[in-house]
Structure formats: structure tokens, C-alpha cells
Amino acid sequence: MPKYWMISNRLFRQGQPTHEIGKVSYWTTDDDKADTIDKWTSVSAAAFETQLKQAALAFPLVSQATAAAFTAQSGQPADAMPMLSQMAAHQEQKHVGFFIHGYNNGFTDAAQRYQQLTRDIYAGPDGLGLCISFDWPSLGSILGYLPDRDHAQACAADFTDILSRLHDWLLIKQKDAQNDPADACRAKISIIAHSMGNFLLHRAMGACWKRQNQPLAVSLVNQILMVAADVDNDLFEPGCQDSADGAALANLTYRVTALYTGRDSVLGASSGLKHFGTRRLGRSGLAVRPPTDSVSGRVDNVWDVDCSTFFPAQYDSIPLIDGIPIHGAYFVYPGTVTLMKEILKGIDRSALDARGLLKGNAWPQK
Q: Known Gene3D superfamilies for this protein (predicted)?
């Protein structure tokens, strides 16, 4: 099976990626430095889907993984402690993940970040499974923010199609599991979205929610990580301009986590160009903790983590460290990479706090 997977809706002109929207195309590669399109192999949608299903079917059933873990660690059979067995199964189940890059990322930058993320979180014996890059054509210009926002919204329709097909597949596997537990789905769906990729994500989730007639029969996504999200921080509040999308994110997902820092100068600068009445989620965190809704009064599966303490103080005086602004530092600092991996596993937030994973020690310096 391929190491790396990509779905792109960039227009390719003379074989090279552009910043224009084109038809959806599917790509795979085993090259660990595939930051140019010539390192990727174009495949048909059918071939991509077939390979992806085969890769997911190769993941172990969680019951098997859990039994093996109990036998190895305690000598106890899995059915001796059924509740702990279920908890372990949830955390050990493999993922089919998606990564949606952010604003001002050309093909090379997006591919490099995706491959690093895959190697650090999804690949290997201790990895979560496999990850697919959704590569959309950001215009890549600070002054082009407003048209880039339009670009992201236009690209969301293609990701909606992907989510809808996943939803239909999960319903099929849910019925299969009722007839034979061995036919149950072997992977959870997770999504990591960065910067304006979160705008594309919530637009796509909102459209999928409407298309599927707002179903509650299946949780489409297990974990969503909104990293440095360039979206309104009241997204999950009733009455905001994107409240329908926020409701879709919350209802179609088991847990949504927003990682933010008030030290993000990129979001601070961009807010001056397109401040639509609220603060940025990736700079200020949630407007209300926990968010509220008009039905239950609270949305307890959406939370945020202030990551300010993870990044060195130099970020406050030097715009770039090793060419990476704090806006993208979440993907390179071990503390935040570990945090992202543990969140995606489904570890409870109280357990993450007790283990000291929600705070770094790099800032402020004493």
C-alpha cells in the first residue's frame, strides 16, 4: 500500500500545480521527499478508493488489538475487564486521517508539512494509521486574503463530496457489523486542519450535514483538530454568521479540539485585513467555554488548548525561527506534536491535563 496519499483540486497546467481550482485528482507516492508533483503518481478515483479500502481492511480489529495488549501487559484475557477493554480498544483503533493545509501554502509547502505530519503522527508501528492530504489551491498572498477566502469556500464543495462518501461507507460498515462483527469498520476518521483550512473544513461539514439531512445515525469523524484556526471564535455559538457550520462540526464529530495561542502574529496581522466582527479562534480560543447552543445549553464535545507555553520566547521578537512562524510551529515542536497525537487517540482531556501534556515549559522564560 502507498505511504502517502493526496486528493487535490488544484488545476495542473503543463503538468505543474497552480493556484487555480481544477478537477479533483488522486495521487499516491512512496517517496519520503515528494515535495514536487513529479514524485507523485496519478491514479483514478476508483483505484484510489480501492487501495484505501484495502489499507483500512488491513488494520487490526480493535478487539484483536485489545486482547493482545491485555495478554502482553497483564496476562489477563480482554474479556476479564470488559470496560477497560472497550477503553483500550477506542484508543488503539487505527485512523484514516485527513490533513487540510492552510492559507499561503503552495504545493511544495503543503506537501512537506503533510509528509512530516504523517511520519510524526500516523506512520510506523506506533502510528495512528494513514493520512490523506487534501491539497487545495491557496492563492498564497497576504494581500489576497479575501479572494483566498472565496477560493477556500469554492474548494469546500469537493471536500463535501469526500465526507458524504465516507458517511455512506460508514453506514454500510455499521450494517455489516450487525451481521458479522468481523466486518466492522477497522478505522476511525480524524481530521487536522490548519489556519484557513479550518474555514474550508467548516464549510464542507456544514454542507455535508445538510446533504445528509442532518443525520445522527453515525458519528462521521472521531476527532477534529483545529490548529491555529483562521475562523471566527464564536463559530460554535448560536446566532453567529456560521452557526450552522459550527453545529455540523459538533454534531458530526465525537470531539473537536482547537489549539491556539495569543502570540500568533500571523493571525494578528491578517485580522486587520478581514476582521468580520469577531476574534480569530486560533488566536483567542473559544468565545465561550464550553460553547452553548439553544437546545442543550452547552456543547461539551468542543474544547480548546492554549499552546502559548510550548513555543520559545524568541518568537515574540523574531518573526521566523528556522523559517517557521509560530503560526505553523505546532507541527514541529515535540510537545505540541505529542499533544496532537494523544488527542487524536481519544485520550480524555482530564487525563491529558493530569499527565502534564496541556502545558509546555518553553515560555515565558524566568
A: alpha/beta hydrolase
